[in-house]
Amino acid sequence: MRIAVYCSARPGIAKEYIEDARNFGTWIGRNGHTLVYGGLRYSMMGVVAQAAADAGAKVIGLVPQSRLDNQHPANTVSIHVETLHERKQMMEENADIFVALEGGIGTLDEVFSALASTNFFKQPKPIHLLDRDGLYAPLRQLIENMKERNLAMPPATDCLHFHPDLPSLTAAISDPSLTDTPLPDTP
């Protein structure tokens, strides 16, 4: 399976986020999957790529032309792109599923781009969000509010799956029937 991973590229983030990236990259490699990601060596992005490569995964990096000097050496394949829009599009086209680890504005942009694109083209793909300590709880609530007002609806809203920890996320990827299990509400 080709798994697109969205996550923070910022320095100085919490060590548990770095560990999530390392553990998820290792899981990708050990389970025979391919990593599709932003192609750079920064922060969580670099950690997930190195861990996946070290565990035997094929690593496909979508590298912006303006950042070629910072592409990750673990990339098995580096695809050079001109714009962030092209990078997102290529990630969407080269992935079977999407996973958002901890991240900020760029991560949210990528999640919504994947959600909108797969819905528009009627090719819904699962999007799994690691909701450690309720990081994505406001997003989950926003989607619920939009559903209640008939502004968002299935199949798009059914693509989003929130997981409180990495074991539940990897279990859901391994067994898609687990994505229908309701999660406890976060405060």
What does this structure look like?
By secondary structure, this protein is of the alpha/beta class. 40% of the residues lie in helices and 18% in strands. It has helices at 15-30, 43-54, 84-93, 105-120, 137-148, 166-174; strands at 2-6, 34-37, 58-64, 77-81, 97-100, 127-130, 160-163. Strands 4-3-2-1-5-6-7 form a 7-stranded parallel sheet, sandwiched between helices.
Short description:
The protein has 187 residues and is of the alpha/beta class. Helices cover 40% and strands 18% of the residues.
Keyword list:
187 residues, seven-stranded parallel β-sheet, 6 helices, 7 strands
Question: Roughly what percent helix?
Answer: 40-55%
Uncertain spans: 180-187
Q: What's the N-to-C terminus distance?
A: 34 Å
SS strand fraction:
15-25%
| Structural class designation | alpha/beta
Helix segment count? 6
Sheet with the most strands: spatial strand order = 4-3-2-1-5-6-7
How do the SSEs run, as a string of H and E? EHEHEEHEHEHEH
- Extended strand count: 7
